[in-house]
Input
Amino acid sequence: MDLARFSALAHRWHDFCSPVDPDRFDRMIARLPIGAEDRVLDLGCGNGAMLARVCRSFGARGEGVEQSLGMMEACRNHPEIEVFSGDANNITLTPGYALGLVVGATHIFGGLEGSLARLAPLLAPGGHALIGQVFWKKPPSEAFLRLLGAPKEVFSDLDGTLQPLDRAGFRFLRAQVSGELEWDAYEGLYHQSMEAWLRDHPDDPDQTAFTQRFLDVRRRYWEGGRDYLGFVLALYRL
Ligand SMILES: C[S@@+](CC[C@H](N)C(=O)[O-])C[C@H]1O[C@@H](n2cnc3c(N)ncnc32)[C@H](O)[C@@H]1O
Output
């Protein structure tokens, strides 16, 4: 199954591709010292909406890296950003960014610490990193882990996610945990978008596989995900 295509279709109605409310996001970045001459980097930038929002806030230039063709297509809605197609692990970038984002994409670098380590050499001295990471709100049941198809170790609890606070050469500044409203809005739109797409494309070659995945992800959220999964945005300074 083409998971990247499924994800791009499921996110086609979203603002951000993470359970983060845009207004709360604005408050999180409001005090960042970014100016019109600065560049902002987003690794795994999805549809580009978050990067474009940062750039509009500060008048800065945005550069994203994305490997899904469907997401690259969605980035075209944001002409104010430049998006490079490739693997964020090894793509060559020009250092000196004022801010680097890895939101909902930390798995690319093996987690939060690895994401900070990837960003560190790319940032200007005193640059900032904004990391968005899933965590366990409470220990998951075996039944939920089976639904998720992943071991418990795939995430930590909030304490284990954020501790130690200062690390990889960064100073921890603040963090913001997403609330139930943000999760319900994110997951609800994901399921609703996919259900509508499946109805409108009965003859698509991916119809059978995508229908099964739609049923699985919807079940995963309503049979545990809503209770077990949290999401935190954490802000650091180099
Ligand atoms: C959950 S989305 C988050 C998108 C965006 N950061 C946001 O929060 O709106 C994660 C994105 O990372 C992309 N991705 C996954 N692995 C990648 C890689 N190795 N290189 C570049 N992008 C990758 C996926 O295609 C997906 O669009």
Notes: The radius of gyration is 18 Å.
